[in-house]
Amino acid sequence: MNIKKWIELNSDDLCDKTAVITGATGGLGKQLCLYLAGLNANLVLACRNQNKTENLIKEIKSFYPNCKIDYIALDLENMDNVKLTVEKLKTTNFDFLIHNSGIYNVSRKTTTSGIDNIFQVNFVAPYYITKELLPHMRHNKAKVIAVGSIAHNYSKIDENDIEFKTRKKSSKVYGNSKRFFMFALYELFKKETNAKLAIVHPGVTLTNITNHYHKSINWLVKLGMKIFFPNTKKATLHLLKGVFENSNYLEWFGPTIFSVWGKPKKRLLKTTSKKECEKIFEIAENYYNKLK
Questions:
Q1: Tell me: the pLDDT tens digits for 99-140?
Q2: Going by C-beta distance under 8 Å and a sequence separation of 6 or more, which residues neighbour residue 49?
Q3: I need a surface site. Which of 85, 142, 143, 159 has the fewest CB within 10 A?
Q4: How would you classify the pairing of strands 251-257 and 261-268?
Q5: Bridge partners for 261 per DSSP
């Protein structure tokens, strides 16, 4: 696959367009920043680690010295910080809000908001940001690009344990949070006419998601992923696809073959029901209203 040619055929110049990106210092986020900078977009990096962000800015500038880049400190585990970030973004004219940040196998804890940290980082906080900024995005005709995951297949809503606090398997805990985020956004944007939405799935690729493995086997896991799965440059094309195309209700962009390999393709998800989507949206709104 010729990545350069694919980008030329599937993208446009983004001069005077601004993209807000969470989790920009990770593998997919970093590569997306480079792609967007190469298309002349302005960037707002909403990240937790200032040192990593500053190093990323230097790297992007080394390739694209004219790229305009701003930094906003964002810690999705801290709702006070999330609210401050939202207020800053309300005064920022942006065209794309890209929810790339996420956590997988990390130590579980309850945040100061009383929410499981994985559930908050992957769902509650980004949903809150989106809902708060929606009037602003309508005015600017902006777009949300949300990174979903095939892991949403590994869970179904459990109203008795919404945050999967009693579950131990990382894939299910992570998948549950992504399931809530994806399907809540589909419902939120169901009748939107000005603000747009794209749900994207990068497939399986090597990122820091393997770092929870012990060093003695992590090298082997990484080697296997390098051999059998697409590299980050190819996986990030699915995110880039979402920048230029919208997904309709229950559609997403992901790899063509088993949602793991191949070029980005839009497809209809058949992994939920109307009833479950509506229930997830109701729960999402409850979290949002409690945090207001």
A1: 999 999 899 999 999 999 999 999 999 999 999 999 999 999
A2: 25
A3: 159
A4: antiparallel
A5: 257
Domain 3-291 has CATH 3.40.50.300: no
How far is CA 19 from each of CA 63, 163, 228, rounded to the nearest angstrom? 18, 30, 31
CB 287 within 8 Å of CB 82: no
How many CA atoms, within 13 angstroms, populate the side-chain half-sphere of residue 154? 17
Encode burial over 259-289: b for 16+ CB neighbours within 10 A, e otherwise. bbebebebeebeebeeeebebbbebbeebbe
- % pLDDT > 90, the chain: 80
- Asked whether residue 215 carries a pLDDT value surpassing 70, the answer given is no
Look up residue 16 and give its two tokens: 């005077």
Residue 266, pLDDT above cutoff 90: yes
CA 36 to CA 275: how far, in whole Å? 37
Provide the 3-class DSSP secondary structure of residue 42: strand
**Both tokens assigned to 140:** 């600017």
- Determine the straight-line distance between the first and last CA of the chain, rounded to whole angstroms: 46
33 residue type, one letter: C
Q: With b meaning 16 or more CB within 10 Å and e meaning fewer, what string describes 95-127?
A: bbbbbbbbbbbeebeebebebbbbbbbbbbbbb
pLDDT band at 260 (very low <50, low <70, confident <90, very high): confident
